[in-house]
Write a structure and sequence with these properties.
Layout (H helix, E strand, L loop, with lengths): L7 E2 L12 H32 L3 H4 L1 H12 L1 H11 L1 H25 L2 H28 L6 H26 L10 H23 L3 E2 L2 H8 L10 H22 L1 H7 L5 H25 L5 H21 L2 H15 L2 H10 L6 H10 L7 H11 L2 H4 L1 H17 L5 H7 L1
Parallel strand pairs: 1-2
């Protein structure tokens, strides 16, 4: 490539640290807002399509299956792209897919084809999964390993801001006066998204990002690169990411339906409460980031997972305002889980870090598994009873945090040999 398209390599062949990491960290953090916004809209679209297209709860989860199914299919490809071409090319490629998928929403809304929306959502999610492979791994390795969880939680906090903004906008334009029965607002919102993401892609094209190779990771870590299948904290982390995302997605997907059963019959009001819940999610992530200066990340994860399990279980039995409060507070304690699991799973992997990042991002595919299961249960019983599904996912996270998440020390590797 010419001009701004070249990958910048560090002539000292060392991982940047200190002030050198500030600009790349800020630029990559913008990406977290973008996919938080896309995800925040997804849960509201789920209910909007139920209303406009006459879908059942189970049918409407086709969006979640497409979105999170892309994370099963695409991350291995994304992992190869980032290892072969570097972080910058991988990020621009992901943004391009995001733009294409967002533009496709226009004809789908014009012809009211739910299958088209599912396909367009899949394209967007392929782009987002590629961004996650690159951005999450980049934030993790760009600096000291000791502060990896702190950095990723801080950057991912802006993901929460995007998730908060999505439902807030959707509550006005999807369910507001004059928009509740058609898909016109969907066309214009996603066209605006495409334009915004295009500007971000231009910014990345001309930016200079320091590249970090597998060889640099191996040299900096001073830890022998072992097969991933022999790394207990990595294998357990992949499963933890699957179950966490599966649980988080089902809670958000049926949030509006749950509130309808608990006495909030206005979809506009329920969508606004979802937005406020995601604001609690964002606040929880900032607080968790602060706590990581004093406590080990796995202990914070374990405490938060315990509270999520309890709150999700309570939402099954409690009715009315009590159940609503439980499910809203649950979002606060979900906050640190994704980035913390990601960094715990990737700790001390040396030259395998980029490849491992692809597998951990595949854990987002868990979001394609739980929603149809919960949707089927909700259609036959109630949304409250179907909350047993995410409760199971949160329970495993307690086990991972307290028993599996600690990586073996270099000294224990030597002893085991």
């Amino acid at each position: 490539m010419e001009g701004g398209g070249e990958i910048e390599s560090d002539p000292t062949n060392t991982i940047p640290s200190g002030k050198k990491t500030l600009f790349p960290l800020v630029l990559v953090t913008v990406l977290f807002f973008l996919w938080g916004f896309a995800y925040g809209l997804l849960d509201v679209l789920n209910k909007h399509f139920q209303n406009v297209l006459g879908l059942t709860k189970l049918q409407s989860t086709g969006l979640q299956v497409a979105y999170f199914g892309a994370y099963i299919v695409f991350p291995p490809i994304g992992s190869m792209i980032v290892r072969r071409f570097g972080y910058k090319v991988s990020i621009i490629g992901g943004l391009t897919l995001y733009i294409i998928g967002a533009i496709l929403f226009w004809p789908c809304a014009q012809f009211k084809t739910f299958g088209g929306f599912v396909a367009a959502t899949f394209v967007i999610a392929c782009g987002l999964s590629n961004l996650e492979v690159a951005a999450n791994t980049y934030i993790t390795v760009l600096g000291s390993p000791k502060t990896a969880s702190f950095r990723l939680n801080l950057s991912q906090s802006f993901n929460g801001l995007g998730s908060f903004a999505g439902p807030l906008i959707a509550s006005k334009y999807f369910f507001g006066s004059g928009h509740g029965g058609d898909l016109t607002s969907v066309k214009y919102i996603y066209l605006g998204i495409a334009c915004g993401v295009f500007l971000v892609a231009i910014g990345f094209f001309f930016a200079k990002l320091p590249e970090i190779t597998d060889e640099m990771m191996s040299e900096e870590s001073n830890i022998p690169t072992k097969p991933l299948l022999k790394q207990r904290h990595f294998i357990g982390g992949v499963l933890a990411q699957w179950l966490y995302v599966a649980a988080q997605v089902t809670v958000a997907t049926f949030f509006i339906n749950l509130l309808n059963e608990d006495g909030i019959h206005s979809d506009t009001k329920a969508s606004q409460l979802l937005s406020y819940s995601l604001l609690l999610f964002t606040l929880g992530r900032f607080i968790a980031t602060f706590l990581m200066k004093f406590l080990q990340p796995r202990y914070i994860l374990g405490i938060y997972a315990t509270l999520c399990t309890v709150l999700c279980a309570l939402s099954i039995g409690l009715h009315g305002i009590s159940g609503i409060i439980c499910i809203m507070i649950l979002f606060f304690f979900e906050s640190c889980m994704y980035p913390t699991i990601f960094t715990l799973a990737l700790q001390d992997l040396g030259g395998n870090t980029k490849r491992a990042g692809g597998f951990v991002v595949m854990g987002v595919g868990g979001g394609a598994i739980f929603p149809p299961i919960q949707g089927a249960i909700a259609d036959k019983t109630s949304t409250r009873i179907s909350q047993i599904v995410p409760t199971v996912g949160y329970t495993y996270l307690i086990i991972y945090a307290f028993l599996l998440a600690k990586a073996p020390t270099p000294s224990s590797d030597v002893e085991s040999k």
